[in-house]
Amino acid sequence: MKARVVIIGAGITGALTAWRLARAGYAVTVLEARHVGAGSSSRTAAGIRQQFSTPETVLGMRYSVDFFRRFTQEVGGSDSPLVQSGYLFLLGDDAAVDAAAGRVRLQRSCGLDEVELLDARAAAGRFPWLDPDAIAGATWCPSDGFLRPELVYNEAIDAARRLGAELLQGAEVQEARHRGGRLVAVRAGDRWIGADVVVDATNAWSPRLARLLGGVELPILPLKRYLWFLDRGAQVSAELLASLPLIIAPGGAYCRPENAHSLLLGYAHDTPAEPDFRHEDQDRIDPQAFHRGAEDGLAVQAWLAMAEVVPALADLAGFRATTSGFYGTTPDHNPFLGYDPQVDNLVRLVGFSGHGAMFGPFSSAVGLALIEGGADLADLPVLDRAVSLLPFRLDRQFQHGEAMVI
Known about the structure:
Elements: E1 4-8, H1 12-23, E2 27-32, E3 47-48, H2 55-69, H3 71-74, E4 82-83, E5 87-91, H4 94-109, E6 116-119, H5 120-126, E7 137-141, E8 145-147, H6 149-162, E9 166-169, E10 173-179, E11 182-188, E12 191-194, E13 197-200, H7 206-213, E14 221-231, H8 238-243, E15 246-248, E16 253-259, E17 262-267, H9 298-309, E18 318-329, E19 336-339, E20 346-350, H10 356-373, E21 379-382, E22 385-388
Parallel strand pairs: 1-2, 1-13, 2-9, 5-15, 13-20
Antiparallel strand pairs: 3-8, 4-8, 5-7, 6-7, 10-11, 11-12, 14-17, 14-18, 15-16, 16-17, 19-20, 21-22
């Protein structure tokens, strides 16, 4: 048996890391403060895209899409969690089109051959529900789409347990023991669990966990994000709704079909950080964000923004529900994937800035490689090339951040 690994956090990142480590022969214990998927993983819009602006992220996401295509063969389950309905980024002006042209060249250089830059007329010709007068162009990638996150974390945890991993739910870490600059055990409830390696997969909770474990407090800010659900009603056909990809409007509103009768809607709005949030605050809906709140509230703003570019969406029947959760956001919107500089055997897989669900396969592959190597790595071979891990190191300078943030 290889080393004992304690993974803290049972969202998508923690669950996939547990599966990889258990498959590789490690003795794995997963500690989850509430229940599997209780954090951001169950509250995500779950988009998965390869249209990013840094080569390392494009390559990592190409790997993730390829993994999710093979999910049932690799991990298990009867249903694929991947819906490849495509991602359509709408561009508001000529400057945005010029910037998108540079991103498309970069994405293609990373092997994303199917991504396209479309002018407004070409986009409306491809997607007749678009208003060409409301946009200057678009980028389109048909192999992007969205995930069913509950399938990912539940199937991955089940697969890890079949391989011998132990899962403890309702097991919030409360204390840690160190020896020689290393963690040797953590306490959850009245039980001490010995560890050769500890993995922090708590994302928005990571700064407070770091204080408890003696690790460096990374600059991760918990930002509240909302999702709203609109009923289709009689004026919008099920066929139209089902044909929609994940659409991002120029101002940061986005939507995708949730099912044949409902549209999921989100909005990348400004919001203050909440570093002292509690678990129950995930479900706290501020009045300005509630779907039955003010007429100028965030939900209505997002709906109007989407209806401006897809006029048919103005005929949806209305709001049905609001959900919410937290992004664990970093200064450059790239995650932290590496060993903690203050605790030799603490691996940090956190700071996903709203991209944790789609990053899961890549992040967990990095986690396994870090533990196998025993130190930070310069790169990770995936698909047809090596991906540099330097942009994800904990000690990096925040200079070349991800520009495409939703």
